[in-house]
Design brief:
Blueprint (H helix, E strand, L loop, with lengths): L1 H14 L41 H4 L22 H5 L7 E4 L4 E3 L2 H16 L2 E3 L2 H5 L4 E2 L2 E2 L4 H8 L7 E6 L35 E4 H4 E3 L1 H4 L9 H10 L3 E3 L2 H6 L8 E3 L4 E4 L2 E5 L8 E2 L8 H52 L8 H52 L2 H16 L4 H11 L13 E4 H4 L5 H11 L1 H4 L2 E3 L2 H6 L14 H8 L7 E6 L35 E4 H4 L4 H4 L10 H9 L3 E3 L2 H6 L8 E3 L4 E4 L2 E5 L19 H51 L1
Parallel strand pairs: 2-13, 3-6, 9-10, 15-16, 18-19
Antiparallel strand pairs: 1-3, 2-8, 4-5, 6-21, 7-9, 10-11, 11-12, 12-16, 14-15, 17-18, 19-20, 20-21
Helix pairs in contact: 1-6, 12-24, 13-14
Length: 714
């Protein structure tokens, strides 16, 4: 990440003879801000007398001590205006900036809290305007990252190597907020309904929505996508959605039934989504810049405002032209319908009662028969394609089952035990709540199930699911991220509350909960840790695959316009995770299992493809995200992870003990499915031939009828 951002900076430095390039005119250019530990010199940059006046690097966008080395010193403040250079650089001309530099927050505490909520990956995300801009940052050779071109090539030429993943957000591909804005607000804040108690009151301590508490710099306020959407309703709405902000943890917990997308409290509480909590101490994070008390709009704002008024007048003129054109179109349609009626009336008068054996009647009957024949072939073809898609889905499911069964037969129980033991050893080394839970399990002195603090903990995400392929295991772990892989999974909200207690000032009580247990065995808990409460998650509400001991979800496969499944589609991640048999029958108090609660929450409809090329071709069909086995990651429409693979905590492999059906039975079923698929393919080809022939006959008959009418009218 550090190398990536640094390379952008160095690329721009190469372009500039003088690092201080003045602003060109009053146009709004793309801005890329550099890192430098200094206070902005307003004498040199008078246009910085804005709502972000007097912000210093060390105050507002620094990375605190204790952050990993590759992040140190990445972001701070502005060095100079470089809009012209960046806008003419073919590599980064589409880059608008970094998330951390595109917004400001009034309160230092809230700034740190929002930075922690998003995490360093999102705060360091590169924001591009278009998908072409995203593609320009990296290229691949047969699925392998090309490190000799694009940003990687520039980095190499400067002796810098880009390592790890970096996130890129494409504004054009984000789903924008489609509601109203607060009237008369220059910041164009979103008009969101405030949460209300049953009596109609706003919950105590509610401060507002995070998306509205971030101030967009005046220089970016009028930056819009080609469809006319600004940063707040695209970027920040995508990042925060309806995230609520409260004054204290107590206020936030009392409002829990009214929190739909998540919430934070100014004393450090974080609820990511209903059922997912962040406990523990605050961590050093990249922060948003802080807004000073002074605020004065630059002179260029008034020019922009005048330009905006002119654009509005042009828009009104265009709307008037559209209305006039629509009126002419309606008139033309009316004339067409009138002439059409006259023609039909003429035909009726010319032959009011055609005899049964008249040429006209014969042609009409033939056309009707041919039309019905075409419709029958089309319906039959559609039915056959539906059937073959069902067969393809069954084949894919059986192939996945065979791979799992084969891998379990090829690995001995001792090897599986060593693998699982290695996973626990790795987790124990983590200075986190997950490491503590694993160590408690390893000690065997007091069973975890009998400890009142952690008796409600079902396990760690990384240990509750298995994957049959090491490459795929690493990919899913990287998609979720280390924090989620190490998340504690509790059954009830009471179990979550038992893990941590706070004093009246919202400070963690280290003499209770997990902190007390940790100190009793010579460990300390550092930083935040995720906790997922299964009873609070919204479960999958659909059907399950019939007769499946793993209770996989019956999700509709993505389909191309012709009804075919996209090439390279393997399945949904939620169904490709294997649940151990000791947990597959476990259910919540409302009767829901791990797959439809925990793993559906983690993966939702995440699609899995064989290659990045296959995934990109299916982009219009990806609604929730996708991964490819060669390392591609699309987190959601418009949000991409580029760069190299990163080491992660992985899911365990599938144990050798398996009660799946015997391999030969599955292969026998699979063979039958392949035969059925081949038969359907032959039927489809034959039916398509019949349809083509029927369409040709219909066209021939139409032309004959038209010639007959023309001769008859002469």
């Amino acid at each position: 990440m550090a190398a990536f951002l640094s390379s952008i900076c160095w690329a721009v430095r190469i372009i500039l003879d003088n690092p201080r390039v003045p602003q060109i005119g009053d146009d709004i250019h793309v801005r890329l801000w550099f890192v430098e530990e200094r206070t902005i010199d307003h004498e040199e940059h008078p246009l910085y007398y804005t709502a972000t006046e007097s912000v210093t690097e060390k105050e507002d966008t620094q990375i605190d001590e204790g952050t990993s080395e590759h992040l140190n010193g990445l972001l701070c403040q502005l060095k100079a205006h470089i809009e012209y250079a960046v806008s003419h650089n073919p590599l980064v001309k589409d880059v608008l900036g970094i998330v951390a530099t595109l917004g400001n927050v009034h309160d230092e505490n809230l700034s740190r809290l929002l930075g922690e909520y998003l995490g360093t990956k999102a705060m360091f995300a590169v924001v591009c305007k278009t998908l072409d801009g995203v593609k320009a940052l990296e290229s691949y050779d047969e699925g392998v990252l090309n490190t000799d071109s694009d940003l990687h090539g520039i980095g190499s030429s400067l002796g810098r190597i880009l390592k790890g993943r970096f996130r890129v957000i494409c504004l054009e591909d984000l789903r924008p907020y489609d509601g109203e804005f607060i009237a008369g607000d220059l910041q164009r804040r979103l008009d969101l309904l405030k949460p209300k108690l049953p009596g109609g009151e706003i919950p105590r301590g509610f401060v507002g929505y995070a998306v509205n508490l971030v101030n967009v710099d005046n220089k970016n306020l009028f930056c819009v996508t080609t469809s006319g959407h600004g940063l707040r309703e695209t970027l920040f709405y995508n990042l925060f959605s309806h995230l609520q902000v409260y004054r204290t943890r107590e206020d936030m917990q009392q409002a829990l039934p009214f929190i739909t997308d998540g919430a934070v409290s100014l004393d450090g509480g974080i609820i990511r989504t209903p059922g997912v909590f962040d406990l523990g101490d605050r961590e050093a994070q990249v922060k948003f810049q802080r807004i000073s008390g002074k605020s004065s709009l630059p002179e260029s704002f008034y020019k922009i405002e005048n330009s905006l008024e002119s654009k509005i007048r042009d828009q009104e003129s265009l709307l008037a032209n559209i209305c006039q054109t629509q009126s002419l179109l309606d008139e033309a349609k009316s004339n067409y319908e009138m002439k059409k009626g006259d023609f039909l009336h003429f035909l009726a008068q010319r032959s009011p009662a055609q005899p049964q054996d008249s040429p006209t009647k014969t042609y009409e009957d033939d056309l009707q028969k041919l039309g019905l024949r075409v419709k029958q072939h089309e319906d039959h073809l559609k039915f056959l394609r539906t059937q073959i898609n069902i067969i393809k889905g069954s084949i894919q499911d059986l192939q996945v089952t065979i791979r799992k069964h084969t891998s379990t037969e090829s690995v001995s129980e001792n090897e599986d035990a060593r693998s699982e033991e290695g996973t626990y050893e790795q987790l124990i080394q983590e200075k986190s709540a997950a490491g503590l839970i694993c160590q408690l399990n390893a000690l065997h002195e007091t069973p975890v199930s009998q400890n009142p603090v952690v008796k409600d903990v079902l396990g760690i995400v990384a240990t509750l699911g298995n994957v049959d392929d090491d490459n795929f295991s690493r990919l899913l772990a990287e998609y979720l991220g280390k924090k989620v892989m190490l998340a504690l999974v509790c059954q009830t909200f009471d179990g979550v509350k038992a893990l941590e207690a706070y004093d009246e000032g919202g400070v963690i009580n280290r003499n209770s909960g997990l902190h007390e247990i940790a100190s009793s065995i010579g460990r300390t808990l550092e930083g935040r840790y995720h906790v997922i409460c299964l009873d609070e998650l919204t479960p999958y509400a659909g059907n399950f695959l019939p007769d499946d001991p793993q209770k996989r979800l019956d999700l509709l496969n993505p389909e191309l316009p012709g009804g075919e499944i996209p090439f390279g589609f393997i399945g949904y991640a939620v169904n490709l995770v294997f649940i151990d048999y000791q947990n597959v029958s476990w259910v919540t108090t409302s009767g829901h299992g791990l797959r439809e609660t925990l793993f559906y929450h983690l993966f939702s409809h995440l699609q899995v493809y064989r290659t990045m090329e296959d995934m990109c071709k299916a982009l219009p069909l990806i609604k929730h995200g996708a991964v490819s086995l060669d390392g591609g990651i699309i987190r959601s429409p418009g949000v991409f992870d580029l760069g190299d693979w990163e080491a992660q905590v992985k899911f365990q492999g599938i144990s050798g003990k398996s009660s799946l059906p015997e391999n030969y039975k599955i292969k026998s079923i699979l063979k039958g499915k392949f035969w059925e698929k081949k038969r359907l393919q032959n039927d489809i080809r034959r039916e398509q031939s019949f349809l083509d022939q029927a369409m040709d006959n219909l066209e021939i008959k139409k032309r004959e009828f038209v010639r007959f009418l023309a001769q008859d009218f002469q």
